[in-house]
């Protein structure tokens, strides 16, 4: 029997109909580089590659009443017809038509009675292009291990490699189906561990709060203000995207002694400031970005989750781009120090200290009382490295990428950034009821970078 780890299982525990917890992405493909590229070849290619990683043939066995963590079990032969589908964009096949279809498909929850992944081959795009949309449960992988999936599916030349790279845990095997008595015994053993785990997290949270109080400094504001995208998230999704030059971002970070992540936070903070001003709702107190921090060893791209979310000020109250970045730099420096001794993070606490059923009840209760509950963060901003060189799938060149991710119950906006082929590709996932004009945010990102460059130039 193979039981899920707490950090993997928590994404299933907190999933609701309104907030499915799969991640994914859209690859815009140029089929002219592939011989006879089409749906049949694409699906056969995906099947060949994913068979090299047995996890994509595992499905869940859930414990009755959510008493304990679920188990991975083998699903038998990989049935591609249940996972790889064909779809078409309505004419004229432009960016908005693609975004509308992708938002609709991405919103659909994954079926828990089969392996937790799905792909769509999308045709009908302008210029003869096609696209690939992929969705994978966050229980199966995080953003960094998603880059490991890129290694498995994509090649660096049009001709597919005979021996592609595979995730480092590709030899892992799911167990047999657990019997009820076995699940009950394991559930009892795990129940004795949870009070101690919960106590450790509470003590860490208290110690972290005391240390910050003593130092008189914090990486986040005292209170995170609520804005229009911090309502109750519904089941619909919309996506938007943009790109900026990685070379220009690096030039800005070098000029200021910052990091690429600092500049990403700076330009997204600038874009959100512009968006909130447009809506006449810019608060005096800065928004808070929730930044996923990988706890992996360097080079580890094994599947599964090894992340914690940490809050950092977005400095949206600062008008000057360089001054905003300076505030973010100081905050992220403290974030790096806190990473060495983290404490009080909500996801690990729920994962290790609660049963799946109780974790789900906690999330639902927090949503029901969200108006009176302090807001932990405004939105998630994650930055995932990909490839500096062009990639191909089944011979077709990847012309662009749009990363997509999970919306938290009171965060109707997620910003995910992927570095690919000399650019930073920004994908935002939103609840369109809370963010009706997502392209205003993505349009603001290149403008915020230009403002930062101009501010740097003025300072000489």
Outline the fold blueprint.
Layout: E1 2-3, H1 6-13, E2 22-30, H2 39-50, E3 58-61, E4 71-74, E5 84-88, H3 95-107, E6 117-123, E7 130-137, H4 143-153, H5 180-215, E8 238-245, H6 246-256, H7 260-278, E9 288-294, E10 307-313, H8 321-339, H9 346-353, H10 356-368, E11 379-387, E12 392-393, E13 396-404, E14 413-420, E15 423-430, H11 438-458
Parallel strand pairs: 5-6, 9-11, 11-14
Antiparallel strand pairs: 1-4, 2-7, 2-13, 3-4, 6-7, 8-15, 9-10, 12-13, 14-15
Helix pairs in contact: 1-9, 1-10, 5-9, 6-7, 6-11, 7-8, 7-11
How does this structure look, described?
This protein is α+β, with helices and mostly antiparallel strands. It has a domain at 2-181: Chloramphenicol acetyltransferase-like domain (Chloramphenicol Acetyltransferase). 37% of the residues lie in helices and 21% in strands. The protein is built from 11 helices and 15 strands. It has helices at residues 6-13, 39-50, 95-107, 143-153, 180-215, 246-256, 260-278, 321-339, 346-353, 356-368, 438-458, and strands at residues 2-3, 22-30, 58-61, 71-74, 84-88, 117-123, 130-137, 238-245, 288-294, 307-313, 379-387, 392-393, 396-404, 413-420, 423-430. Helix 1 (6-13) packs across helix 9 (346-353), helix 6 crosses helix 7 (260-278) and helix 7 crosses helix 8 (321-339).
